[in-house]
Amino acid sequence: MSTITEVVQTVGGRLTLDHLDTLESESIHIFREVGAEFERPVLLFSGGKDSVVMLHLAAKAFWPGPVPFPLLHVDTGHNFPEVLAYRDRAVAAKGVRLEVAMVQDYVDDGRLTERTDGTRNPLQTQPLLDAIADHRFDAVFGGGRRDEEKARAKERIFSLRDEFGAWDPRNQRPELWNLYNGRHRPGEHVRVFPLSNWTELDVWRYIAREDIDLPELYYAHERQVFERDGMLLAVGPVSSPRETETVVTKQVRYRTVGDMSCTGAVESDAVTVQDVVIEVAATRLTERGATRADDRISEAAMEDRKKEGYF
Amino acid sequence: MRSSEHSTLLRLATAGSVDDGKSTLVGRLLHDSKSVLADQLDALERVSRHRGLAHADLALLTDGLRAEREQGITIDVAYRYFATADRSFILADCPGHVQYTRNTVTGASTADAVVLLVDARKGVLEQTRRHLAVAALLRVPHVIVAVNKIDLVGFDEDVYTRVAADLAAVATDLGLLDLHSVPVSALEGDNVVDVSSRTDWYRGPSLLEILEALPGTDDPSHEEFRFPVQLTLRPQEAALDAAHREYRGYAGQIASGVVRVGDEVVVLPSGRRSTIAGIDTADGELSVAFAPRSVSLRLTDDIDVARGDLIAAASCAPETTRNLVATVCWLSDVPLSKHSRVLLKHTTRTTRAIISAVDGVLDLDAVQIVAAEDLGLNDIGRLRIRTAEPIAAEPYARHRRTGAFLLIDAQSGQTLAAGMVGDPLAGQGEHADQWDI
C-alpha cells in the first residue's frame, strides 16, 4: 500500500477539505450506508459520465473489496456504438456483474409501442421497474444530480418509491443531517442519488482529477450531423435526416449520452478533459437544455416522468 | 462565476416569511453570480410573459414542482448550486410558511449558515424570532439577515439601523453564535452581489461578500475525534489484491475532529481501547485525516467492532446511555401520542426506543417550555426517551453529528421526528435557566 501525503488545506488557519474531496467523502458515505443497510442494491449504469463517476466512487467506498452489487443498464436499443463498447470494457475492468433490460424486447413483443417521435427515453420506465421487481432490488443508485433540472432539485438523496415505482414529490421524507432513512416495506424500493450535490462542472473536474476513462464521444471529434429543433443529431440507424434537413460534418462532442435519436451534440473543440472543464465552466447553456429533446416537451416533463418511476 | 479547483464548500439554508421576497433573493443571487444559464433565463422570460408579468420573475427559478408554479408558493426544500472564485455553495431553499417549520429544520440541519429575510417595512416579526430560534436550536454557526425591500423605505438608514438593533437583541437573547445583517433590495439587486451606491451609509460588505468570507464549517482541529462505524471492510477471498485478504478496516466518515496514526481510541459502547494502526483510502494511506473525510481505520488490537459502534478519542470519549433527555421537532402528521414505541437512528446505529415522557412543548415566540402532553406536526418539544441499546449520545450543543438522531415509525418507515440530545439552547442567552435539563 502506498502512502500518500494528505493535502491539508487551511483557510484562514483552519483545516478544510476542498470541495471535491468534500463531495467525494459525502458520496462514499452514501454508498456505504446503502451497502450496510440494504440487501439487494443495484447501480444504474449507462456508460454516461455520471454513472461512470458513480461506479468510480462505489469502487472507492468498498476498497479493498469489490463493488458488492451488480450494475443495471436499461438499454433503449438506440445506443451510440462507442458507448456500448465502453460499457462492456468498464464492466470487465471492474469485475462487476451487468444486468441489461432491453427496451427493444418490449417493443418486439408489443408490451411497449414505439412513440411517433421515435424517442425511447420515456419507454425506459417499464423495463426499469420490471427489472427492479424481478431481481427484487431494494436500493437503486441513480446518477441524477439536483443541478440538472428543477424537479430533480427537489429530490432527496434517499428517495422512496412505492410498489408502482412512483415518486410523490409532495410527500417526501424530510432528510436531516446525514441520517438517511432507508426503511421501506416489501415491494417498495429506494432510489439513491449519491451525486445529488455535484454539479456538471464538479463531475468534470473530478473526472480530470481522478483521470477517469470515458466514452470517446465526450470529447471533440468529427461527425456527420443534421440540425433538428435547434439540436445537432448524429446520422445513424435510428436518427436519419428528413428531406428538408441537410447533413454536414462538424467538430462536435456530447455533453450527455442517451437515446441517440434525441440526444444532441454540441459544437466543440474540447479534445482533452482539461479543455472540457474550461468549456463547461464557460458555457451559457444547461446540460439538458443543450442536448435533450425530451426535456423540452413541457415545463414539467421531467417531473411527470419521475412520478411514473423514471430515473 | 465558476469556482476554481481548490475552492471550499459552504452549505446555506434560506428562511423567511411569506412574501419577504425569499425566492426573488435566491433568484437574484443565482442570476447576478452568473449561475443562471441562458436557456433557463429564456424559459423564465417566456413563462413570465405568458403570465403577463413585465419582468422575468426570478422566483420561478426556484419553484420546481408544477403545483408550486401553479400556486405561486414554495412547498418543499429545493437545492441550488452556485459558485464564486473561491467557494462553491449548496443552498437549501426552504419554504416560508409558518406551518413549514419542519422544512426550515431540515434545511438548517446541514447548514453552515442561514440566510434569513426580513421585510424592512415590517421589521422583526414573530416569525423572524421563530426562524432565529430554529437556527439557534439547530446550532447553525452563522446567521445572515438580509433586510429586504430597502428600496421601498427610500433606502432610509434609520429604518435599517432600527431593524438591525432589534435583530442584535434577539440574537443575544437566543445565544446565536454569529449574526450579520445587510440592507438589500432583492428585486433591484442592491447589496446582493455588489455593494449599492444607494445605501452609501452602509459601510459593510454585500450579501455575497459576507457569504464568501464566512469561516465555514467548524475547524476540525478544535473538535473531539468521533467516528461512527458504517461497516467492516473484510474482503477475504474477494479482495481485489491478494495482499488484502487479511485486511480488516472500519469504514466511516469522520464526524468531527482529527485522527492520526498512533492515536489512542475507545470503541463505544463496548468501552474497549485500542490504537489507530492505519488510516486508509482507496488512494493510499494517510497519516492524518479530519472531518468530514470518509476513510477506513485499522486498529492495533483484534477487538469486536461493528456497524453502529463509535470510535472516539480515548482522552475525551463520550458516555453511553439508554436514557435520553432530548429536544425534538415533530415532523409527522400523526401526533406523538400514537407512537410510544419507535426506532431511534443515531449515527449509524438504529435501536428500538420508548418515549417515556413528554416534558413540554417549546413556545418559539417566548422561547420557553410550556406544559404539554402531546406533540403534533411542527411542534418542538422536550422528551424523555429510553433506548433498547446503549448509545454514545452527546449534547447536540457541542456535537452536531453525534448529538443528532431521528425517530422512525417501525411499521411505515416514516421519519417522525428530528431529535437533538439535551437542550441545544442551554447555557445560551437569557433563557438558559428555563432550559436546564
Report on this model:
The complex is a heterodimer of chains A (311) and B (437). Chain A has helices at residues 19-37, 49-62, 81-94, 103-108, 125-135, 200-210, 273-282, 287-291, 301-307; strands spanning 9-11, 14-16, 41-44, 71-75, 98-102, 139-141, 158-161, 189-192, 221-228, 231-234, 247-253, 266-267. By secondary structure, chain A is of the alpha/beta class. Chain A has two domains: 17-202 and 302-307, 3-Layer(aba) Sandwich (Rossmann fold), CATH 3.40.50.620; 212-295, no CATH class. The radius of gyration of chain A is 20 Å and the shape is globular. The two termini of chain A are 38 Å apart. The model of chain A has no long low-confidence stretch (mean pLDDT 88). Chain B has three domains: 8-217, P-loop containing nucleotide triphosphate hydrolases (Rossmann fold), CATH 3.40.50.300; 221-316, Elongation Factor Tu (Ef-tu), domain 3 (Beta Barrel); 321-435, Elongation Factor Tu (Ef-tu), domain 3. Chain B is built from seven helices and 23 strands. In chain B, a hairpin with a 2-residue loop joins strand 18 and strand 19 (349-363). The longest helix of chain B is centred in the middle third of the chain and has 18 residues, at 157-174. With 437 residues, chain B is of the alpha+beta class. Chain B has helices at 22-32, 38-50, 66-71, 101-109, 126-137, 157-174, 207-213; strands at 8-16, 78-83, 87-93, 113-119, 142-148, 179-183, 226-228, 231-233, 249-253, 258-260, 264-268, 272-281, 284-286, 288-290, 294-299, 310-313, 321-330, 341-346, 349-363, 368-370, 380-391, 404-408, 415-421. Classes of the chains: A alpha/beta (311), B alpha+beta (437).
